[in-house]
Write a structure and sequence with these properties.
The protein is 34% helix and 23% strand. By secondary structure, it is an alpha/beta fold. Strand 12 and strand 13 form a beta hairpin.
Length: 410
């Protein structure tokens, strides 16, 4: 597929259609972050990776849109491979059910991945349906007894589900909304499918943390949007949906979970406090985002000095999508990082996009631990879990922690 056929540059805001867009960070040309390849395969295309600020609605988004079929039809992030995500799924479902009028609701999850979260609902007696465009992940979910429809969610799909299954008491969209090019169709679809007194749940990365903790590694082609509470609240209101509660999630280095409904509900104190804190953070200010871009360049200089100051190429941990941004922005290759350990079997034996660094299994990585004085923790957002595992496996060296904030050796 030709490069120019899989992406396009935007000339107006995807949310409000204004043309007043300002580039705040240019990370260069990157391959799609999950486009890992076999040795000898054709290399993935390089696509501009630019962060833009809309001065009309203060939304943050990418300057380029990549064909979603290219990005998501075969997906390599598997929720169930993360112990943190699996443990969090239990708490997530408990909190969701607290806010639902039905004891055993009908739950629809959009972008349901391998069904890790839906399984928790099903275990409690709920009727569930997953919707996900990745055929490989849907097969895993169906094999576990979780009904899953293989397609991209839209308003038309919502109408089809409504006609076949009826209204959903709970609609879940975890880490989906930042990925969606046709965002208005998706939100309209959620509003269509949600039962009038039902609860909608959206989980998304906290953009304030990206700004304050310099998490530029979260910027990659799959993430078209970087929402604030203000911007996502405004988007939902266009479709008759109102946010009434919020809580924190440990996923992606810090995320928000918002609860919303069609029915009018009083805002919780937690939401009021979060909105006030965001108002004072500067996340909706062009000036603060221009400063973010300058700090990202400085961070790259500091991190490359630490990595290249080590004795020979080092081992890294975590071949995540966000690691691809960090590795390629810093210009790391096999001369800097010999291999990347990852527990996801779909990534093992492949080469990281752009850098061509081999991805190896945890078992293979264990054999290298004695020879390593430092390990680069690319999966820093799962740092506690990873560090614990490696120490149990006998690693006695130190870790290079790239984020949050300044890079450091621990």
């Amino acid at each position: 597929m030709a490069v120019d056929a899989i992406f396009e540059s935007i000339t107006q805001c995807r949310l409000c259609a204004a043309q007043d867009l300002t580039e705040v960070l240019n990370l260069g040309n990157h391959p799609p972050a999950n486009a890992l390849v076999l040795v000898g395969d054709r290399e993935p295309p390089l696509i501009p990776l630019r962060l833009m600020f809309c001065q009309a609605c203060a939304s943050i988004q990418l300057g380029e849109s990549v064909d979603p079929h290219f990005l998501f039809s075969k997906y390599v992030w598997v929720t169930g491979t993360s112990r943190t995500a699996v443990e969090y799924s239990r708490r997530f479902v408990v909190e969701a059910l607290k806010r639902c009028h039905q004891k055993t609701p009908f739950v629809v999850e959009i972008a349901s991945n391998d069904g890790t979260f839906l399984r928790r609902f099903q275990e409690g007696g709920s009727r569930v349906l997953g919707i996900d465009p990745a055929e490989n992940l849907a097969e895993v979910a169906v094999a576990c007894g979780l009904p899953t429809s293989v397609r991209f969610f839209t308003k038309e799909v919502a109408e089809d589900v409504l006609g076949t299954h009826g209204y959903a008491d709970i609609v879940v969209a975890r880490n989906l909304i930042p990925h969606v090019k046709e965002i208005h169709s998706v939100i309209h679809g959620i509003a269509t499918l949600l039962e009038p007194t039902g609860t909608g749940i959206i989980e998304f990365h906290d953009t304030t943390l990206i700004l304050n903790e310099l998490q530029y590694d979260y910027i990659y082609h799959e993430h078209l949007f970087y929402y604030s509470l203000a911007s996502i609240g405004k988007l939902l209101r266009q479709y008759g949906l109102a946010v009434y509660d919020v809580e924190r999630s440990p996923i992606s280095g810090g995320s928000w979970v918002i609860y919303f409904s069609k029915a009018s509900r009083e805002k919780t104190q937690a939401l009021k406090d979060a909105e006030l804190q965001e108002l004072n953070s500067g996340v909706n200010s062009l000036e603060h985002w221009l400063g973010f871009g300058a700090k990202a360049n400085d961070h790259r200089t500091r991190l490359t000095a630490i990595v290249r100051g080590s004795l020979g190429p080092i081992v890294a941990y975590g071949a995540s999508a966000r690691s691809s941004t960090l590795v390629n922005y810093c210009g790391f290759g096999c001369q800097d990082i010999s291999s990347i350990i990852d527990k996801n079997p779909l990534k093992q034996g492949l080469l990281a996009p752009g850098s061509k660094i081999p991805v190896i299994s945890y078992v293979e990585g264990e054999k290298l631990l004695d020879s390593q004085e430092r390990i680069l923790l690319l999966a820093w957002n799962f740092g506690e879990e990873v560090i614990s595992d490696l120490k149990v496996s006998g690693y006695q060296g130190r870790f290079i922690i790239p984020f949050p904030g300044e890079p450091r050796i621990q």
